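Q: Structure tokens for this one, please.
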Amino acid sequence: MKYCYLLLFVLTAGRLAAQEDDGWQEPSKESQVYHEYRYKATVPPYGLAHVKSLITGISNDADENRSMKAKTYQALPLREKFTYHMIHAEAYSQNCDVMPPIQDEHLKIFGRLPDAFDEYSWSDRQTGFLAANRDSVMALIKESVGRSKHVGVNYKTAIVAVKGKELIPFLLSIYKLDRKDHDLLTVLLLLMEQAQYAPFKKTATYTKLYGPESNYQSYLQYNRANEELIIKRAMEFYNSGK
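A: Here is the predicted structure, written as tokens:
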């Protein structure tokens, strides 16, 4: 961990010193605001105070994982387990990469979602819960979003994890409220990609976002034509096999 912090310091210092020479520049204010918006989570209300109090008592293990004790975890009702998973990831995954800032982030539809939990991710126990309680997870997300009208990055990640094709019309109803959250379109793309939906795999969009030359930041330019095409394909995917 100390090595990672030192490396981050050295890389960041080097980046700041070389910004003018290597073309790095600060994104526009609008892009920065949207960047923060993309990383915003939705906090479930189910037993929230209780779950938060239990999380404060969790200690890191030797690998810096932060897992609730099995006995305590098993005693939680399903809704509180859902809250726990949506606000706390157990598995530590060190990441020392320093990436240049994304320019015009608000004008892009990405092929991948941002990390929901920074340097942590869901453990096998947590992904197992999501898979085993798929219908309940989707129902709780829908219920929660119905109140907040916001699908946080944690909820988006969970929808992809449970392959929540059934939520496509609901996600579109939320998206169309203001057409601001382009990561909702990313969820639609990921649902088609993970299902290996054949009509989608034949498109230029699939090649650009998920083909051999793609990367974590591959994107489509946001415009009404691309938006409408993604929505059309997602609804065709939703209706396929019904």
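A few notes: Confidence is low (pLDDT under 50) at residues 5-21. The longest strand covers residues 108-110.
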